[in-house]
Write a structure and sequence with these properties.
237 residues; alpha/beta; five-stranded parallel sheet; two-stranded parallel ribbon; 10 helices; 7 strands
């Protein structure tokens, strides 16, 4: 019963966050619907869909790119495939529950209180980066983990549910709900056992991340130079 209450609270928070940010920045959603001179720019397909459905306006994609030089792993980099890393601020209570159901052979390391170089070293040395939290946009750390040669596993929350935002295979995503924790706990040993093959399945994800800077340039030109508004992620595939 407590777990169900926690899920309902988390779901309510996810829906309220965008409107809370509007209130904090003194933005009136009603005015956004009426003012057609406003150009709405969004960073993810999730945000594009949110603005289009909630405000009945068509936004334009203006994403970002991941600085990649420091995160790209090398074949010589030692890697502990049994090590699962995570951001405790993103679904930390869920990861604690998953950890309790996993075999003791799996090691865990929270990414918190680290310097930039320590984060880089941790991602280059781990097997899996696990993120079961809400993705308000295209989050940075899942992309950095993938570039580092780790296997990125995310929950289908926020942009994590959109393939255009997080283009990893279906079996590398966890569906929120009653079975989320046991599903994730059962998934991890299987992914570790077949690590090389599972990492290879994310080659498309890594290629997309490496192409982000070029795509971002096209998005900027479309919005600010060509005036081609209303594009979403699928216009750049």
């Amino acid at each position: 019963m407590a777990a169900q209450h926690r899920r309902l609270v988390d779901k309510a928070k996810e829906g309220a966050v965008p409107f809370a940010r509007m209130w904090k920045n003194r933005v009136n959603p009603g005015m956004l619907r009426k003012d057609r001179d406003v150009v709405h720019l969004v960073q993810s397909s999730y945000a594009w869909a949110f603005i289009a459905t909630r405000l009945d306006v068509v936004p334009s994609l203006l994403s970002d790119y991941t600085p990649n030089a420091e995160f790209q792993g090398t074949p010589e980099s030692p890697r502990n495939r049994q090590l699962v890393t995570y951001n405790p601020a993103k679904g930390g209570h869920l990861i604690d529950a998953v950890r309790a159901q996993c075999p003791p052979s799996i090691e865990w390391r929270p990414i918190a209180g680290m310097t930039r170089s320590e984060v880089v070293a941790t991602l280059q040395g781990c097997g899996i980066y696990l993120d079961l939290g809400h993705h308000p946009g295209k989050d940075r750390m899942p992309r950095e983990a993938a570039l580092s040669g780790a296997l990125t596993v995310v929950a289908r929350r926020g942009s994590g549910a959109f393939y255009a935002d997080v283009p990893v295979p279906w079996e590398h995503k966890v569906t929120p709900g009653r079975d989320e924790v046991p599903t994730a706990a059962a998934m991890l040993p299987r992914l570790i056992e077949n690590f090389d093959a599972e990492v290879a399945k994310q080659d498309t994800y890594r290629s997309a991340i490496l192409n982000e800077r070029s795509r971002f340039k096209s998005e900027v030109e479309d919005v600010f130079v060509r005036g081609r508004l209303g594009k979403d992620a699928y216009d750049y595939l």
